[in-house]
Amino acid sequence: MVALYSLWFPILLSAVLVFVASSIIHMATPWHKNDYVTAPNEQKVMDSLRPFAIPPGDYVMPHAADMAEMKSAQFQDKLKKGPVMVFTVMPNGPFSMGRSLTQWFIYSVVVSFFAAYVTAASLPAGTEYLHVFQVAGVVAFIGYSLALWQMSIWYHRSWATTVRITIDGLIYGLLTAGAFGWLWPR
Questions:
Q1: Is the dihedral of CA 20, 24, 25, 26 positive or negative?
Q2: pTM
Q3: In a domain, 147, yes or no
Q4: Which residue from 15, 43, 94, 177 could staple onto 133, CB 3.0 to 4.6 Å apart?
Q5: How many CB atoms lie within 10 A of CB 126?
């Protein structure tokens, strides 16, 4: 078993590599250009919702208080009439990219930490590059991708968006795997 503290450099390096790769993917390519589209009559929809001053949070419409209400004729009628939505309201004003980028980097460090933990618990020092690559890469891929499938399964996010995000996760997993394979203790 490899001591986790001896993997601090591959943990940080892989997080930096993922951060740079994700920046390139999102800012320099059109890969995620169509993940979100403009709502029909966007201005009218925004003007209609503004008076409600909906606080930031996650919402579903229509919303049922319990299973009995879900089965009611009134609720079923609301579903038929629509719109049926799951949506997130963010705070008004400009986006805070600094905060989001900081959280993304911390998340990348956390994924790399768990990749290090599983790989260190599974493999001894001196393990060949490819074996380290496989274990660290699978754990990182899982950390970056698989939980996002739930958004398509339960909340009807476009499967095309989920597939693109999964491919991103594969790239991030491969970068993490490469860093761990290269810097694995000999």
A1: positive
A2: 0.90
A3: yes
A4: 177
A5: 10
Residue 67 lies inside a defined structural domain of this protein: no
According to DSSP, residue 28 is labeled: T
| CA pair distance 80, 128, nearest whole angstrom | 58
Residue 85 lies in a domain: no
DSSP 96-156: -HHHHHHHHHHHHHHHHHHHHHHHHHH--TT--HHHHHHHHHHHHHHHHTGGGHHHHHHH-
The half-sphere exposure of 35 on its side-chain side, counting CA atoms within 13 A, is 13
Which region among 39-43, 74-78, 94-98, 153-157 has the lowest average model confidence (pLDDT)? 94-98
- Please say whether the beta carbons of 107 and 166 come within 8 A: no
- Check: CB of residue 176 under 8 Å from CB of residue 13: no
Whether residue 20 lies inside any domain: the answer is yes
Domains identified in the chain, total number: 1
Nearest to 124 by CA among 54, 185, 180: 185
* Nearest residue to 175 (alpha-carbon basis) of 19, 22, 17: 17
Residues composing the chain? 186
How far is Cα 168 from Cα 29, in angstroms, rounded to an integer? 12
